[in-house]
Specification:
The chain has 245 residues and is α+β, with helices and mostly antiparallel strands. The protein has helices at residues 96-99, 124-128, 130-135, 168-178, 186-196, 211-214, 227-240; strands spanning 6-10, 22-26, 44-45, 51-53, 60-64, 67-72, 75-79, 87-89.
Length: 245
């Protein structure tokens, strides 16, 4: 299975709907992003956003819509698993809610973030230029009251740390068995379908915001922490870092 370089290409043709103009290609594993996450990270909700961040990591590390996202070396990367392998994501394909994460939640912000408002998103239009801005008009304006609920965390991955971290060829099967969330974002959904095939959508194709326990398969005995303990830990993370600081 080929898995690491998550490469965007834009299909040409004005007659094609915008949602159909994104396609994902899967390349060979091995993209190095300069971070190593030996155990499942502590994640806290970004207040008011369907996004989690890692407050104790010295990295710009997030979770959104079923994928982990990292901003490093002026590039975005994404993965199904907390320690990769990572695939590069072109600026045109980064989901809007990832772009909207306020500056203060970047634990290792690049130098050009200096002087930008901590409670506002980075000025991606200034950084990526006019062509990106023209194709992403209004990305930083949205109805905050209508923001979707966050995707459940794939906390089953806590059982796979250190030497138990699965090889690339094992990750897809484990993820399909333990995480049944249906992504909402078109780019994430297309990646999910390419990795795991078409899954029958639950509730007419809408997301299942039932929490991590509702999206994990039953755990076999003797495999680390139980589901109840994982859920308690996740809730503790939210309580301990609900202020986002």
């Amino acid at each position: 299975m080929r898995k690491a370089a998550l490469v965007l290409w834009m299909a040409l043709g004005a007659a094609v709907p915008a949602s159909a103009q994104l396609s994902i290609g899967i390349g060979l594993p091995g993209v190095s992003i300069g971070i190593n996450v030996p155990v499942y990270p502590q994640l806290a909700r970004v207040p008011g956003y369907p996004v989690y961040y890692a407050p104790r990591m010295n990295a710009n590390y997030f979770f959104y819509d079923g994928l982990y996202w990292v901003f490093a070396g002026d590039n975005w990367y994404a993965s199904d698993w907390y320690n990769g392998p990572w695939g590069t994501v072109a600026p045109a394909a980064v989901p809007a809610y990832v772009l909207r994460i306020p500056v203060r939640y970047y634990r290792q912000p690049p130098s050009y973030f200096r002087g930008w408002r901590a409670d506002a998103p980075p000025r991606w239009g200034d950084h990526w230029g006019g062509e990106w801005s023209q194709s992403h008009g209004g990305w930083d304006r949205w109805n905050r009251a209508s923001a979707p609920a966050p995707a459940p965390l794939p906390t089953y991955q806590r059982r796979y740390a250190g030497d138990r971290y699965p090889r690339v060829e094992q990750q897809q099967a484990l993820h399909g068995q333990n995480y049944r969330y249906q992504p909402r974002d078109p780019v994430v959904r297309q990646h999910d379908q390419g990795q795991h095939g078409q899954r029958a959508p639950a509730n007419g194709g809408h997301r299942q915001d039932t929490g991590a326990r509702g999206n994990e398969a039953p755990q076999a005995s003797g495999h680390g922490q139980g589901r109840g303990r994982d859920k308690d830990h996740e809730n503790a993370d939210d309580r301990g870092h609900g202020n986002g600081h």
